[in-house]
From TrEMBL:
Keywords: Dioxygenase, Oxidoreductase. Signal peptide: none annotated. It comes from Pseudoxanthomonas mexicana. Its cofactor is L-ascorbate. Gene3D superfamilies: q2cbj1_9rhob like domain. Pfam families: 2OG-FeII_Oxy_3. GO terms for molecular function: dioxygenase activity; iron ion binding; L-ascorbic acid binding; oxidoreductase activity, acting on paired donors, with incorporation or reduction of molecular oxygen. Residues 9-226 form the Prolyl 4-hydroxylase alpha subunit domain. This is 2OG-Fe(II) oxygenase.
Length: 237
């Protein structure tokens, strides 16, 4: 077993996950759409906790191309993340697959770390589902998400937020000061960079906030990777 080469904080940033021209085009569409609404948190609209303008693009026909492009970029990053942290895939579920003799055996750390793209993709499709994507604009000097929060919490009839496994944020622009994603326990600030993809766990261990941008508006796309529902993962068991 080959562990992570440095003490792991499980926060990974993948630069150039999306090209700059595509990022600029998404920002321009956001501004032209006039579909943005006041940003909400888990408990509703609380601008003292989160001050942003948001568009939920998932399931909207006129945003389908953007949703697909973002999901593909995130999928590429997720495959790298799972190879870096194989237990993020196998530890929760004790996954099995047929060995050379046709008998089921449990996957181990090295199995995932060295898995080819096709095999890893099959596992990802079986285990995970993409979350709803929000495009967000944080106005310069006033926007932000200053409240320390995590992404995993019990709410809703289907407890959907409890299925969230990792969060992701794709930064659509830079050229402003501050505006970092700041993680409390890791004492780490991620500076926005156009086209960069941030992936991190959703639980309280990765409590974070979005700092206020200075000198320019900040645009991001953000969502989660969720576990499939139990009925899909375990059937009638």
């Amino acid at each position: 077993m080959t562990p992570h080469p440095h003490p792991a904080d499980f926060i990974e940033v993948y630069h150039d996950a999306l090209d700059a021209a595509t990022c600029r085009a998404i920002v321009a569409r956001f501004d032209a759409s006039r579909q943005d609404r006041p940003g909400q948190v888990g408990g509703g609209h609380h601008p003292e906790l989160k001050h942003s303008r948001d568009i939920s693009i998932s399931g909207q026909a006129d945003w389908r191309d953007v949703e697909q492009r973002l999901n593909l970029a995130v999928l590429a990053g997720l495959k790298q993340y799972l190879r870096t942290y194989p237990f993020s895939l196998i530890a929760p579920l004790m996954l099995q697959q047929p060995g050379e003799d046709g008998q089921l055996r449990r996957l181990g750390y090295e199995d995932v770390a060295g898995m080819d793209d096709d095999a890893l993709m099959r596992l990802i499709m079986a285990v995970f589902v993409p979350g709803r994507i929000n495009l967000q604009r944080y106005p310069a000097g006033e926007g932000g998400y200053p409240y320390w929060h995590c992404e995993l919490f019990p709410k809703g009839a289907d407890a959907e937020p409890l299925h969230r496994h990792v969060l992701w944020t794709l930064y659509l622009n830079d050229g402003f000061e501050a505006g970092e994603t700041e993680f409390f326990h890791q004492q780490r600030k991620i500076a926005p960079r156009t086209g960069s993809l941030l992936i991190a766990p959703t639980a309280f261990t990765h409590t974070h906030r979005g700092n206020r941008p200075v000198g320019g508006d900040k645009y991001i796309a953000t969502s989660w990777i969720l576990f499939q529902r139990a009925e899909r993962l375990y059937g009638g068991r």
